[in-house]
Amino acid sequence: MNGAALVAIAATIGNFLQGWDNATIAGAIVYIKKDLNLGTTVEGLVVAMSLIGATAITTCSGPISDWLGRRPMLILSSVLYFVSGLVMLWSPNVYVLCIARLLDGFGVGLAVTLVPLYISETAPSEIRGRLNTLPQFTGSGGMFLAYCMVFGMSLLASPSWRLMLGVLSIPALLYFAFAVFFLPESPRWLVSKGKMLEAKQVLQRLRGREDVSVFGGVHDLLKSISDENIMYTAQLTEFFSEMALLVEGLGIGGETSIEEYIIGPGDELADGEEPTDEKDKIRLYGPEEGLSWVAKPVTGQSSLALVSRQGSLANQSVPLMDPLVTLFGSVHEKLPESGSMRSTLFPTFGSMFSTAEHHVKHDHWDEESLQREGEDHASDIAGADSDDNLHSPLISRQTTSMEKDMAAPPSHGSILSMRRHSSLMQGSGEAVGSTGIGGGWQLAWKWTEREGEDGKKEGGFKRIYLHQEGVPGSRRGSLVSVPGYDVPEEGEYIQAAALVSQPALYSKELMDQHPVGPAMVHPSETASKGPSWAALLEAGVKRALLVGVGIQILQQFSGINGVLYYTPQILEQAGVEVLLSNLGISSESASFLISAFTTFLMLPCIGVAMKLMDVAGRRKLLLTTIPVLIVSLIILVISETLQLISPVLKAGISTACVIIYFCCFVAAYGPIPNILCAEIFPTKVRGICIAICAMAYWICDIIVTYTLPVMLSSIGLAGAFGVYAVVCFISWVFVFLRVPETKGMPLEVITEFFAVGARQATKAD
User: Fold this and answer.
1) According to the lineage, what is the superkingdom (predicted)?
2) pLDDT tens digits, residue range 533-552?
3) Which residues pair with 406 in a beta bridge?
4) Could you read off the pLDDT of 376-435 as tens digits, one per residue?
5) Are 15 and 111 in contact (CB under 8 A)?
């Protein structure tokens, strides 16, 4: 987690530079218009060129990042910041200054769009919200430090606006150094391009773990379905459960069903042995070799499945609520209140590796190594990492006996010797040696067979996201009967909901070939197709775009720009500027100091938000803080409308409302839209979708910036704040009806939920 946190901090230097630029241009423009004799129109153009550049670059930043990667785009952002700072330092005239501001806008657009995406793809799900609040913190920190610098320079006899703007190049150079020498590529992007070896190494660095569990679940599954007359093909890779999760995230738009299981430990049976006491029991295979469970399908036990079939009582009383909001809510209602945020499903299983040696041909399942076949690179790789987990079995043969090439499974005694490590839950509920994928979720696969009409066996290879429901307790008896084996009463079996769908690498084309056994295609084959614009028409993606674009638009029209614009006037009415002028500070310097004070107030509030983001959750924070924004704006409207109150009382009330508004906004409505947009889209189209949401953000930013003076002249300050209060109310309704809770959930599970919720909404319509 420390590795992911350090990477996130380094990446958010781009947001620090955005905040720095916003503050420096706000201060420098005072001196620019005097030095270059600018009119009002040209003055506005100099400020707006950054917005224009950010909007323009956003149109292509997403698809390019899906093509070239996240890291190259962050490097490009740092270069643009650096070059624009140098050009602004030199600027001989307004035309060169506008070009420099345009380049600066390109850097801002790339950072604002891609940093949240990059953090979401590298951070563990347990702290993803906290780390993705960092851009808001560093941006506000950049504004505060820049205002302090501008204030200090304004005290000089002849302040230099070129120096104010040119200082940007210094932190930009630091950003460039971190982006080039420290930031890794996103592991999810690497997996999407089939670069499995590199993705594994990046994950080891981000998670601070050298141990890499074997992706042996499918391997075990192969052994369990082996038959003397079966010909099978399979491609397997070795990586720990998060690597397996990243591969599964490549799929878009598969048919997903919600099932319910009662699950028990699978190590009660010898390796490859199937449960035989009841026909409806199945074996589930985890992402580690030797890790499996026995499951019995049930009905009516899972709240998740119940919600998916009938809808919740809350949903029935609120007919406009999106079903996916209820689906997400049904999961979070069952999360444990204490203990680790990691998987609470089988936390103490640990990795139960088979002690048998498997004599299987190994090849690198990596796009780069496939291209180097026949060259003398194998020894180099082996020298760099002697771990056999760098290899993956490539099984493609016809056989009459699996035992010809594989050692016998371990004895029953060896399985029993590990029995004490296989308890499903500890009494304290703490996760120890968790094999989960985060947020109480576990990745597994299953293979089911049935006899077809022609008498041939037909199989189904399914991927399963399991989530524990309820509290594990005493369950009398055993789900699986093993002669001479007593099952402890406490905490041996749990109730779980399951999202069941086709594995990402079990393609439609592969299904048409009717393979026997769980055959999979190589990730590089799916990666070669690149991002598909047609995928944007998938029901789940469209639903996510509605949430992402909607919340970005509403955030921009919620009044933050108007309050920022009005803050100096509020503090001036409160007598702050008069007090500062009595100390010998000019009105311009006083304005900069007031702005520095305002941005400083944001920092502790964002710190609180970082603490709460993964505890209270995104949705709850929004639903709690937006009403405070509404009340603050309404009080500002009343204080502007009523002329009976004294100026001192009016200034005091207005100052309090502005401070409360700022604190609540930056704690929730400021960072959360970007956090959500970085979480809710599938890996293959995440860049494109983020770009669409960012486009909506920047266009609305431009609209708000240029309509605010018009609103002030036409309907006055009270009318403008009244409009913002109405938009905040609409925002609360939108969040309540459409925005789900995503805290602690793996990105791949979130996108799967959007697909399920979208299909339910379609059926309901």
Assistant:
1) Eukaryota
2) 778 888 889 999 999 999 99
3) 358
4) 433 333 333 433 333 333 222 223 333 333 333 333 333 222 333 333 333 333 332 334
5) yes
Q: How far apart are CA 159 and CA 153, in angstroms?
A: 6
Beta strands in 176-244, from DSSP E residues, in sequence order:
231-235
How far is residue 125's CA from residue 281's CA, in Å, rounded to a whole number?
A: 31
Return the closest-CA partner of residue 49 out of 6, 88, 111, 104.
104
Q: Which residue has the tokens 């401070």?
A: 659
Q: Which pair of tokens denotes residue 747?
A: 């990105």
**Short-list 223, 248, 242, CA closest to 506:** 248
Rounded-to-integer distance, Cα 688 and Cα 681, Å: 9
Amino acid (1-letter code) at residue 548: G
Please state, in angstroms and rounded to a whole number, the distance separating the CA atoms of residues 200 and 203. Answer: 5
In contact, 521 and 235? CB cutoff 8 Å: yes
DSSP letter, residue 277: S
Sign of CA dihedral 181, 187, 191, 197: positive
Three-state secondary-structure class, residue 406: strand
The structure's pTM equals 0.79
| Strand order across the 231-235 sheet | 231-235, 392-398, 362-363
Please give the backbone phi and psi of residue 162, each rounded to the nearest 5 degrees, phi first. Answer: -65, -40
* Alpha helix (H) residue ranges in 12-69: 13-35, 40-68
Phi-psi category of 720—alpha, beta or left, where left has phi over 0 and alpha has psi -120 to 50? alpha
Q: Can you tell me which residue has the tokens 């007919």?
A: 319
